[in-house]
Amino acid sequence: MLQIKSADCLHGVDQDKEAVYTFKGITEYWHYGNQKIDDRGWGCGYRTLQTLISWFKLNLSHQLTFPDIYDIQSILISTGDKPQSFYKSHEWIGSFEVGLVIQTITNV
């Protein structure tokens, strides 16, 4: 897993730009194919969510079990957001689902 520090994100940034978006702390970068799941073409929302969850774990010392894609799908089913047929599907998730999972896992 690739770990990224916030200072690394600012290295080489064009100072003429109007805005720079970054984070404080350290996170892990989750990419397609992690956890031996071929999620090319449909996994970007899941991998972005996993990257965000890693920030909570590494910076706020949250004691949480790190979810794989199927765990994320199960969480969304248990919240009532998705039907049972969503499990092990290749359906995308968006920012709303990301928020539900973060809220469920971190209790924030």
What does this entry look like structurally?
Helix 2 (44-59) runs parallel beside helix 4 (95-106). The chain has helices at residues 6-10, 44-59, 69-78, 95-106, and strands at 2-5, 26-29. It is mainly alpha-helical. The chain is 40% helix and 7% strand. The chain has one domain (2-106): Cathepsin B, Chain A. The protein has a two-stranded antiparallel ribbon. It contains 4 helices and 2 strands, in the order βαβααα. Belongs to the peptidase C78 family. InterPro entries: UFSP1/2_DUB_cat. Keywords: Hydrolase. Residues 20-107 form the UFSP1/2/DUB catalytic domain.
Keywords:
108 residues; mainly alpha; Cathepsin B, Chain A; two-stranded antiparallel sheet; 4 helices; 40% helix; globular; UFSP1/2/DUB catalytic domain-containing protein; hydrolase; UFSP1/2_DUB_cat
